Amino acid sequence: MLAIIALIPGLLAGWIGLTRGPHAAFLTVYLPSMMLLPEYYRWNAPGLPDPTFGQAAAVGTAVAFFARGTPGFRFHSMDLLVYGFALAASISEYRASGYSDAQNLMFNMLTWVVLPYIFAKSLIEPAGHRVRFAKTIVICLFIISAVSVYEFRFGTTPWRMILDPFFPGQARWVTTFRWGFARVAGPYGHAILAGIVMVIGYRIQRWLEWSGAWEPKPRFAPWLPISQGRLITLGLLAGVIMTMVRGPWMGAILAAMLVMIGRSRQRVAAIGAVVALILFVGIPGVIWFLDYVSVGREGAETVAQESAAYRWELLTEYSEIAAERIWLGWGLTAWPKVPGMPSIDNYYLLLLLMHGLIALVCLLAIILVMLVRLTAHGMRQPLAEPRGSSLAFTLASLYLAVGFSIATVYLGLQAVPLLFMITGWGIAYMDSGVEGIGTEAVAPSEPAPTHRFRRVMT
C-alpha cells in the first residue's frame, strides 16, 4: 500500500492545474516530478495501468489541460509521426500479448510519448515560457548532479536508499562500475540513460548561459568568484562525466560540433569543413571500425573492442529474427533470444525486434526531420547575438546526440518523455517566429475568467 505515494504528484498536478491552470501544473509539478523522481517505481493497481510518479503527474496535468480547453494546442504534421509511433508500439504489444499484458505499454505510450509532446508543444512557446521551461530542466539536473556525487563515491544511489522501502522488490536496476568508480545513474535507472539526459541538459544550459539568461551571481552564494551560469554549466558537466558512458559522450561531441556551426560567423564554410571532415576522416574511420569489430568477441584485445564487436554481432545475429515479424515485431520481451546475447545494445535494433518497422520508421523520421528542419531554420536566421544563443542549433544538436547515442545504448524511462518534450518544444519554437530567449509572454497563459467582481464605491 505504501506504493500509492506514486499518485501524489498526479493529485497535486490536478489540483494546481484546475486552480492555477495547466501551465502551472506542467512547469511546477509534472516537469520536476518527471526529472527528479524515478520512473521504475510504480503503484500496482489491480486491473488498471500501473502509474509511476511522472505518469501520475502527466495524467493530472492532462485533466487540467483538457478541462481548460487545450490552451495553445495546434495541429502539426509532426503529430502524425508522434501518434503513429505510439500507436504502432501499442498495437504491436496488443497483438503479441493481449490487452491485460499490453495495457502498461499503452499507458507508457500515452504518458511518455503523446502527452509530453502535446504539453511541450502547447504550454511552452504559446505562453512565453521558453526560458522558464529550459531553466526548470537545468536546475533539476544540477540538483541531481550535486546529489549524485554521493553515488559516484559510495556506489549507492540516494534515490533507492529513500524510496526502496515504499516499493519493495521493484528496483531491479543496479549500480555499474567503470575505471574504479560508480557510474552515476541518479533517478534514471542506469548510467546510460542518465548520460543521455545529462547531455541534453548540458546543451540547454550552454544555450541559457550564452543567452545571458542567468543572474550574474548565485542568490544563495553571491560571494562565489564565479557567475551563476558558469557554476551551473560546470555542475552539469560534472554530471555528464560521472555517468562514464561512452556512447552519450560521443553523441555529445557530435552535438558540440553542430552547435559550433551555429556559432560560426561563416556558417556555410563551417558546414563545408564538417562535410570535408566526414569525407576525409569519417570514411577511413568507418573502414577502420569495420576492421576493428570484425575480429569478434573472441579475438578482441580490450574490453572496449569486445564491447564494439558484440554490438556488431547483434546486427548480424538478430536481423533474421527481426525479419520474421518485420512490420509489428515480437512484443516487448517475446522475441527469440540468441544464446550469449541477452542485451540488445542498440535501441534501433531493439525497437525493430519489439515493435517492428513501422515504429522504427516513425522514430527515425522524427529524429531526422527535426534535425534537418531545425538546422535549416537556424541557417535561415541571422547570426545570433550573443553567439551561441541560437535555439535552433541547440535543439538540432540534441537530436544528433540522442540519435547517435541510442545506436549504441538503450532508450527508456525519463529519456523517452524528455525526447518527445524536446520535439514538441522544437515544433512550437519554429512556428513562433521568436528567436533568442523570447519574451515574457507572447500570449496570455490562461484565459480570463468569465465573470469578475465589480468594485462599487458609494
| Global morphology | globular
Oligomer: single chain
Helix content: 55-70%
Please tell me how large the radius of gyration is.
23 Å
Total helix count? 15
Strand content: under 5%
Uncertain stretches of 5 or more adjacent residues: 440-445, 448-458
Topology as a string of helices (H) and strands (E): HHHHHHHEEHHHHHHHH
Q: Which strand order do you get reading across the main beta sheet? A: 1-2
Average per-residue pLDDT, rounded, comes to 90
Terminal CA distance reads 58 Å
Total strands: 2
Structural class: mainly alpha
Largest sheet: 2 strands, antiparallel
Summary of the model, kept short:
This protein has 458 residues and is mainly α. It has helices at 8-20, 22-36, 53-67, 78-97, 99-123, 130-154, 158-163, 191-210, 228-243, 246-263, 267-293, 303-324, 347-380, 391-405, 415-432; strands at residues 177-178, 181-182.
